[in-house]
Amino acid sequence: MTQDDIVDVLNDLIETCKDGEYGFQSSAEHAKSSELRNVFTARAAECQTAAAELQLLVSQFGGSPETGGSASGAVHRGWVAVRGTLSGYTDLAMLEECERGEDVAKARYQSALKEELPEMVRTIVERQYQGVLRNHEQVRNLRDRFKAAA
Prior knowledge:
The chain is mainly α. The chain has a single domain (3-149), classed as Ferritin, core subunit, four-helix bundle (Ferritin). Helix content is 84%, strand content 0%. The protein is built from five helices and no strands. The chain has helices at 3-30, 34-60, 71-87, 91-113, 119-149. Helix 1 runs parallel beside helix 3 (71-87), helix 2 runs antiparallel to helix 5 (119-149) and helix 4 (91-113) packs antiparallel against helix 5.
């Protein structure tokens, strides 16, 4: 892989992290449950930290790090806002949307891990991918719990 290829992969992941940060933060703002607000706020902070770590790597490889989310993430956040308005921003709806967002993040990290990344980069991407998997599992379990209580 060339340095430009590495930068491209990392910038895609930065966009993914920023999408997660914005999505979780938006969900935290609309969650009725204090438990969910706390979970969503913590997940947003983790996404922000992951993006910052990747931005540093991009700079180390001579690239210009992304600073925002993806266009598809903006569309998804817009859809979440519309759906939230229509559904009254129920906690279950927010959990379902967060799970969809984490499905996208999982796929993007899996795609990145199929690339021939330098060992140092691969180690960081794999560690962050494990965090995505934990986020996904936590959101799914909360969604199942809130669905059962509805």
